[in-house]
Amino acid sequence: MRYRSTRGTGATLDFEQVTLTGLAPDGGLYVPEAWPQLSRAEIAALAGLSYVETAVRVMRPFVGGALSDDELRTLCTQAYGRFAHKAVTPLVQLDERHWLLELFHGPTLAFKDVALQLLGLLFERFLSDRDTHLTVIGATSGDTGSAAIDALAGRAKVDIFMLHPLGRVSDVQRRQMTTVKAPNVHNIAIEGTFDDAQALVKAMFADQGFAGRFTLSAVNSINWARLMAQIVYYFYAAVRLGAPERPVAFSVPTGNFGDVFAGYAAAKMGLPIAKLIVATNVNDIVARALSAGDYSAGEVTATAAPSMDIQVSSNFERLLFDLDAEAVPAQMAAFARDRAMQLTDVQRGGAGALFAGVRVDADEMALAMRWACEGSGQVIDPHTAIGLAAARATELPAEIPVVTLATAHPGKFRDAVERATGVRPALPSRVGSLFEREERYDVLPAELGAVTTYISERATPGA
Ligand SMILES: *Cc1c(COP(=O)(O)O)cnc(C)c1O
């Protein structure tokens, strides 16, 4: 399997290379050259398999020759052995047709763990054969940072520098990052917003003088291996609800379009998916693009679902490329210039067949939380509630089960959950003595020079 850039230029990469890289040199994102196919018989044969075995069968065509099946199985066993639920991503029934797929049983309580626990092991495995030291730089509004730090803490040949906006992440999120004591973990609180932190990271990748001295890598969802790991749970859930005989719909709380793009990949591989519901909060660029073809960014509005407070949805480019590749370079140039562009008719038609974009406001979100709580005793987090509200608002034939991806543990967003339901969820014991442990982070101004100096003094030059 080879991977090419969505901007259509430059060399193709193999799985190992694509895992260790971030953005393509032409500014595009890497995608597989072709979608591997699982036949109906192969999908039917997934029924009853463990999560790890499902993962091996779904991911091995993407991994190609980079790992043997046994090596891949060993890494998956290690990654998913850290989950607090034996089923890794269990399904929970809400009523006759609505289900939750709980993706938050990993160490840091959000679905980001599903991909990042594996990515950390893939980094270590691929770096062990190389004379390379990786410097991972990322910006986080909370969940990616804690999941990436947990996955990379203490691993050989990799340092992680994680920028978060000072005072703008929740206490639980900050402590999950700053109480990790491994010497290869560096937390930086930026005096600014998440957008400022994100802009600093992009500027560092583009700064030749700085980037040239280190082997920089990314852990946000522009990394292909992350999306690959997320395809697995679509198969795992669908076969338990009757696929391939019975098609299933999914509702996905969406920010950067990574998670729902993994669902699209599952459909392209042959999984019968009746609908992919793209649930957004009031930051609804993707819902607008899917319903009206208008991909234009506004200002970010802060909501109770902060991991979805995004205006530029990076992975949407992967979908546009898959539907109408030729149009993408000009569309992305237009977006960079005007922060707005239009989908082509081919892209709109192709997306319309599978996706439904639904925007959910704060009242609808709170209503969905109460509905789940009163109807089935399920306490859900604000992101999941947006997915569930969108699922319930979408018309589908009665025989289609609808699975809402539960992307975060309610304990991670206790205040918002308590406001909506009156129930204050507990933090699971696996996060340990989060509030007793000492925190460690440095505060820096939102200035490129200050951050590059800080990192240069602490990172290992790449070979
Ligand atoms: C990251 C995140 C999302 C959004 O996922 P994307 O892949 O960026 O669309 C939704 N919910 C939670 C809890 C998250 O952490």
Q: What descriptors fit this protein?
A:
single chain, 463 residues, alpha/beta, Rossmann fold, six-stranded mixed sheet, five-stranded parallel sheet, 15 strands, binds pyridoxal-5'-phosphate, threonine biosynthesis, Thr_synth_N_sf, lyase, pyridoxal phosphate binding
Give the termini distance in whole angstroms: 26 Å
Strand order of the largest sheet: 3-4-14-9-10-13
Main sheet characteristics? 6 strands, mixed
Helix content: 40-55%
Strands, count: 15
Ligands bound, unique = pyridoxal-5'-phosphate
Shape: globular
Total helices: the number is: 19
Quickly give the CATH architecture of the largest domain: 3-Layer(aba) Sandwich
Low-confidence stretches: none
User: So what's the CATH class of the largest domain?
Assistant: Alpha Beta
What number is the mean pLDDT? 94
